Amino acid sequence: MSSPSLTQAMDVVGRVAAVASEQAPQAARASAVFEELRKLIPFDAAEINTLHPITGEVTPLASVGYDSDVLSHLHSQRFTELMKALALPITGRPVRMKDLPGDPFDNWAVGDVLVPAGYSEGLTMCLRTTDGRVTGVINLSTTSPEHPSDIARDAISSLCSVLANMADQTQSGKWLSMLIGSGQSAVGISADGNPIALPGLPDHDLFKPGSDLISYAHQNASMNSWSSFIWPQDLNDDMFRIRVMPCRGDNQPMSAVISLDVADVGPLTHRELEVLTLAANGLSNLEIGAALQISSRTVGSHIEHILDKLGAPNRAAAAARAITEGLILGQVKRFD
Prior knowledge:
By secondary structure, this protein is of the alpha+beta class. It has helices at 6-20, 26-37, 68-74, 77-85, 88-91, 108-114, 150-158, 160-167, 175-180, 212-221, 270-280, 285-292, 296-310, 315-324; strands spanning 45-51, 58-64, 95-96, 121-128, 134-142, 185-189, 195-196, 227-232, 239-246, 256-262.
C-alpha cells in the first residue's frame, strides 16, 4: 500500500469521526474505527484502550494482532511512565518510532518489545479530550518501516479528541453503576451545591444538606476536575475515601457525583495525616505547628514518624507519596 494522499487522509478522518460519534457500544465503534484506519495505515497490529478516570486501569475496547506478551507491556505502568516522559498525555500528539528522541532502539518499548515481536514502525497516541482529560490510548504497529507516513500521522493526530470522546467512560450509560459499585454510598450535587439522592444507591450522614463535606466537594466540582481525598467523620471514627466526579454536558441536573467508602490509611494516625497534608501543601514545621496549635518540635517528631511508617527517605518523598496514593485530607479540621 502506498502512502495516502492528503485528500484520501481527510476522507478517512471524516469517516472515522462519523463512526466514533455513533450511538453504538464503545467496543463496536472502536472495531469500526479500525476498519477505516486500515485505509490510512496498513497496520499489522492495533489496539484502542479506555482508561478508568480515577484508577487509570486499562480496558481494551478493540485489539487485533498483538500477542499477550506485547499487550502486557503496552498495558504496564512502565509504558504509562514512558508516555508521560514523552509528554504524550499533555500534547495528545501521536509519536512514531522515527519521531522518538535519540536512537529509537534505546527506547525499551522499541528495542525490547516491539522490534523483537516483528514490528518495524508504528505510533502511539494518548486520547485527550478538549478539556484535557486522557481517556484512552491507541497503539498501531506495522511490519513496514514506511508506515505510518507523515500525512497518516497528522491525520491520526486530528482525530485525538474524537477518539478520546469515544473512549470516555463517563459517557457510557453504565458509567455510574460501574464506577460506584453495589452498596457504596453516593450522592449527586446540584449546581447550587445541594445534595441530590441517587436512586438505588445508599445515603450517608456526611451527605446532609449544608454539611462541610458537601460544601467542600461542591467547591472542588466547580473547578471541573476529578478529585480524591480522605475525610474523617470525627476524631475517633473511620476515615472515608471521597471521590468527586464532575458531570459535564448540557442540561445536566448535577454538577458532580460524590462517592464514599472506608479509606485505608495504613499505619498513619489522624494527626499524622493532618501533618502530612499540610507538609504536602508546602508548609514549614513552624507553619504546621501554628495551624494545628502544636509546637514545631512536635511537628518534627510527627514528620519523623511519618517518614518511618511510609518508608520515605525525606519529606519531599513523603509528600509525593501522599499525593499519588491519595493520603491527603480534604480539610485539616480540629475536633475540639
